[in-house]
């Protein structure tokens, strides 16, 4: 196991330190700059573009925060970098650009978005970018396949699994009951060998992350901490929180 003290040393700002009221939009350079100014770690999401680039964006389609409505996977990186956001002059970043912006000043935790369809282009691109990055960084995913691929192709890169207990949200409807059990109980761990676990704060305490943390010594992050109650849960059961909506102490 690598030394992961850097991963748990400071609270991690979920999608950067964003604040809609102040015009700071999630997963933008402004949000990441605010996180660095607060000495927080940075969590971000990446989606794949048509030309295989890792784009820093949560949703798999334009529209919630930006102009347009196209799937990101239908547009190349150059086109996506020109897309206007609705409430900020920021533009979408590539993961390489984010790494250049952060330049090792704070830890960077990259969530690889997946449709559970076996497409590993994004995983390979993340491994390539973070493999050349000199700062503290980790990659994680809800999907075990990217994590297993990172273990095989980029074993030196810190990797984690993102998980929860129930998988009841509609975004998980396409997953079978067996797949949900596999995810909820970390049954893939012999194959993925995650260095850390990121678990839903709403589902703590839970058996799987407790075993991973106390028996196998895996650091436990918890997400997304938004309230005083969440903070208390995180402090009791996890090693560090991924937070939003306030300034963590």
Automatic annotation (TrEMBL):
Q: What is this protein called?
A: Glycerophosphodiester phosphodiesterase
A GO molecular function held by the record? phosphoric diester hydrolase activity
Which InterPro entries does the entry link to? GP_PDE_dom (IPR030395), PLC-like_Pdiesterase_TIM-brl (IPR017946)
Pfam assignment, any one: GDPD
Q: Which GO terms describe its biological process?
A: lipid metabolic process
In this chain the GP-PDE domain maps to 9-249
Superkingdom, according to UniProt?
Bacteria
């Amino acid at each position: 196991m690598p030394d992961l003290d850097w991963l748990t040393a400071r609270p991690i700002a979920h999608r950067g330190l964003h604040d809609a009221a102040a015009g700071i939009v999630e997963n933008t350079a402004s949000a990441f700059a605010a996180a660095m100014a607060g000495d927080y770690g940075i969590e971000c999401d990446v989606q794949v573009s048509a030309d295989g680039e890792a784009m820093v964006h949560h949703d798999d389609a334009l529209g919630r925060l930006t102009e347009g409505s196209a799937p990101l996977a239908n547009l190349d990186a150059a086109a996506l970098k020109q897309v206007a956001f609705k409430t900020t002059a920021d533009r979408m970043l590539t993961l390489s650009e984010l790494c250049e912006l952060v330049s090792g000043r704070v830890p960077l935790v990259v969530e690889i978005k997946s449709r559970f369809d076996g497409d590993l282009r994004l995983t390979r691109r993340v491994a390539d970018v973070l493999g050349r990055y000199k700062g503290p960084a980790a990659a994680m995913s809800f999907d075990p396949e990217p994590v297993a691929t990172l273990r095989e192709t980029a074993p030196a890169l810190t990797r984690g699994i993102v998980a929860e207990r129930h998988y009841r949200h509609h975004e998980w409807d396409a997953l079978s009951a067996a797949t949900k059990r596999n995810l909820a109980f970390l049954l893939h761990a012999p194959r993925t060998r995650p260095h850390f676990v990121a678990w839903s704060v709403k589902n703590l305490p839970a058996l799987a992350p407790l075993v991973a943390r106390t028996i196998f010594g895996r650091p436990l992050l918890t997400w997304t901490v938004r309230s005083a109650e969440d903070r208390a849960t995180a402090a009791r059961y996890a090693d560090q929180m991924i937070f939003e909506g306030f300034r963590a102490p």
